[in-house]
Amino acid sequence: MKDVETLYEKYLMYIGEKPNIKVELNKNIDIKEILKEIIDLEKKLINECGMTFGIRQTTIHCLTKDERFYFYLIK
To answer: How far apart are CA 66 and CA 56, in angstroms?
Structure first.
């Protein structure tokens, strides 16, 4: 959760507005599927944020932790 707070903070600092994030969860979906979708979205954000270092670097850290967690979930 700390990583998400840091990412939100960096987004406010560098972009100057609140991110427009909408999440809908189906309670029948497995946590592995949710985590895989989050990883895909983080990769997309890294590619789209360009050279905005604070957001890019923070997202990379979030992605690394999420991928590590996902790896152990599917093992």
So the answer is: 15
- 31-50 mean pLDDT: 87
CA atoms of 47 and 69, how far apart (whole Å): 22
What secondary structure does DSSP assign to 1-69, as a single string? -HHHHHHHHHHHHHHSS---------TTS-HHHHHHHHHHHHHHHHHHSTT-HHHHHHHHHHHHHHHHH
pTM across the whole model: 0.73
Rounded Cα distance between 51 and 15, Å, is 12
Return the C-alpha torsion angle 6, 7, 12, 17, nearest 10: -140
SS3 70: helix
Please give the Cα distance from 18 to 64 (Å, whole number): 24
Stated as kind and residue range, the H or E segment containing 73 is: helix 53-74
